[in-house]
Amino acid sequence: MDLLESTAMAVKTLKANKLRSALTMLGIIIGNASVITMVGVGQGAQRYASEQFESLGPNVLFVIPGSDSSRQRTLETPRTLTLEDAEAIASQVPTVIGVAPQLQTQQTVTQGNRSTSALIVGTTPEFSTVRSFPVARGRFLTDMDVQRGNRSVALGADLARSLFGDADPLGQTIRIKNLTFQVVGVMEAKGAFLGNNQDDVAYIPITTMSSQITGNSSPYGTEVTFISIMSRDEQSIGAAQFQVTNLLRLRHRIVSEDDFTVRSQKDALEIVGNVTGALTIMLAAIAGISLLVGGIGIMNIMLVSVRERTQEIGLRKAIGASQQDILVQFMIEATILAVLGGVAGTLIGIGGVSLAGALTPLKAGVSPTAILLAVGVSGGIGLFFGVVPARQAAKLDPIVALRSA
């Protein structure tokens, strides 16, 4: 009996038991769909994070307080960076062309009878350039605002809309922590960054923030939450990172562990990529368990099928079918179930990835590698778990089979 005839007989047998065949494929369908969806969403999360960090600019550095180990040992954020550190970096590091210290806190912002909770960022005029935050209307903070500790504020696009609606906020006043601030500008919309709305922010002079909003809680000077730095170009970012690290070590008189960390955009992206990559692998592995369960289901159903078709097997062997013919037919049946389940699961998985891409900000996409891997694995599972029932059917003695029927 040739392969084509065996395949035709296998298809005919499966058609005769449509419901059982469909239920047998269900585990493979769920497994394939889960693997493709999880891998697609995971890769989408990686692309989304990559785009978010690339929007910061390729030559941006961030100095954050505390070392990696010190932040793991305590829940409280270290208070080791100061405004004076930022000023020293700006004046003494030759590969740096812009420094923007930030001191931030969450506060209630009020305008008339409207109020909302927003992130308040105390910073300097360089922030707009270093972090690529252009102004849509009015102006950003000035050196005079910082020197005098003026109560000037530039609003993010969403915050301006929440407080003023369609009215022009320029020249109007808002209240932050019961202090009156004059609106001098409205920023262009930037969207979310890793889940945080960058447009729901108010920017005020860092000196005003330190003296009138948060208070100066650092024993070393005017505390800052972190410092953003722009290097001269992408090629000099390594040199800038080295020079900033050495300068801060000298300023902080460090002899052992650093009390700060200097991160580049590439470093941050690598960390996020490692995390999302690990999560993608974990989710795909969990989803892949469904493929194993589906394979076991195929083996169970094929074993039942062998018992139900004892007479058929005995009759075929009695009229000349060899053990290999019986083995091949049952293997083909198992493989067909696995491959059809893989194809159906792939289509459902593609739909799931497309839905995730449409309903979430993740750049979810279908991975050809994941599709080939899932379908290949499902076909292999069909072959692997079809071996035992196929061998059992092939070894049936025709005389015993016909008598037991």
Describe the structure.
Belongs to the ABC-4 integral membrane protein family. This is FtsX-like permease family protein. The chain has 14 helices and twelve strands. With 405 residues, the protein is an alpha+beta fold. It has two domains: 3-51 and 275-404, no CATH class; 94-229, no CATH class. Strands 2-3-10-5-7-6 form a six-stranded mixed β-barrel. A two-stranded antiparallel ribbon has the order 8-9. Helix 2 crosses helix 12 (323-359), helix 10 (265-308) packs antiparallel against helix 12 (323-359) and helix 12 (323-359) runs antiparallel to helix 13.
Strand-and-helix sequence, N→C? HHEHHEEHEHEHEEEEEHEHEHHHHH
Work out the helicity level: 55-70%
What's the rounded overall pLDDT mean?
81
For the termini, the CA-CA separation is 24 Å
Main β sheet profile? 6 strands, mixed, barrel
> SS-based structural class?
alpha+beta
- Nearest-angstrom radius of gyration? 33 Å
The strand count comes to 12
Query: Please, how many helices?
Result: 14
Query: How much strand?
Result: 15-25%
